[in-house]
Amino acid sequence: MKILVIQMKMIGDVLTSSILFEALRKEFPEAELHYMIYEHTFPVVQHNPHIDKFIMPEKDQSLRSLIKNAKKENYYAVIDVYSNLRTALLTGLSGAKFRIAYNKKYTRPLCTHVFSRKIEAQTNAGAAIEKRLRMLSPISDNFPREIKPKIYLKDEEISAAKQTLENNGIDLSENLYMIGALGSSEKKTYPLSYLARLLDKIVERTSANLLLNYIPSQKNEVEKLIGFCAPETREKIHPEIYGKSLREFFGLTYHCDALIGNEGGAVNMAKALGVPTFAIFSPPLNKENWNIYEDGKKNVSVHLRDYKPEIFQGKPEKSLKKEWKELYNSFKPELLQDKLEQFLKNNSK
């Protein structure tokens, strides 16, 4: 029996959808499980013991060739978590007995089972987890409602990261936090001057060393953030230590006491490493879609709606997206400092 899962999207989505393989492996231990993803997202599922084969299409690979290859594999089930028109056609024409996708006008005639993306979470796993696992229900009744995403690090990756930290003078007996300084875009990035005030508070409260999650092309923004910080905070920030690859970032984050910053892929990765997270949501986003495994202690998230719900009343999503700057300006650091303070108490040495 062969089963294909399709998730041709970004890193956070690829990581979250990887829970399907743990569920499938437990239910069908002898099955051959394939994952279709973009090549650049591979590091987040590298070494996953439940996945037998990765299919990473070339950018210019034709839909016809993908369909032809899928038919050759003779899949028992194809689970299209991405569910755009291209992957819907691939799923629908794969020849699989079970062709499963999200409910869209173009998936309904092509698939044997379709599911709504809109659900109310029944567990603290959150909607992102539950709606994915629900997609497995046509092929068995024995799947769980929740599974935590996991990143699998090798011992040598953990050791190498520890050596990097120690070589740069980091004492791991002291508090160490990874800071998600920048979101995936400006519209998903907490204002740097506001974040700097939070970093000042973190250092004042914990005397922690701070690492920054960034890539070299974001160096100017990182320097701007550091410039907003108090002199005492700047001494605790180590911009020279950063993950030069995703796997290096995982190794460094593994040794941190928490990741604090903008909601996004880095937050999901930290959770998958078992590292506590404090996530700041972009105001136009729906927090309920991605606040997975939130417990108020180890994993906490904040949204402007939590503090000023009246701003959002009667406003459609399109309007909120246009007003993202004004909304962020209203999201003053003072609003979330109490929650951050409690989080630091729960996740400090």
From TrEMBL:
<dbReference type="InterPro" id="IPR051199">
    <property type="entry name" value="LPS_LOS_Heptosyltrfase"/>
</dbReference>
<dbReference type="GO" id="GO:0005829">
    <property type="term" value="C:cytosol"/>
</dbReference>
<dbReference type="Pfam" id="PF01075">
    <property type="entry name" value="Glyco_transf_9"/>
</dbReference>
<protein>
    <submittedName>
        <fullName>Glycosyltransferase family 9 protein</fullName>
    </submittedName>
</protein>
<dbReference type="GO" id="GO:0008713">
    <property type="term" value="F:ADP-heptose-lipopolysaccharide heptosyltransferase activity"/>
</dbReference>
<keyword id="KW-0808">Transferase</keyword>
<dbReference type="InterPro" id="IPR002201">
    <property type="entry name" value="Glyco_trans_9"/>
</dbReference>
<dbReference type="GO" id="GO:0009244">
    <property type="term" value="P:lipopolysaccharide core region biosynthetic process"/>
</dbReference>
<keyword id="KW-0328">Glycosyltransferase</keyword>
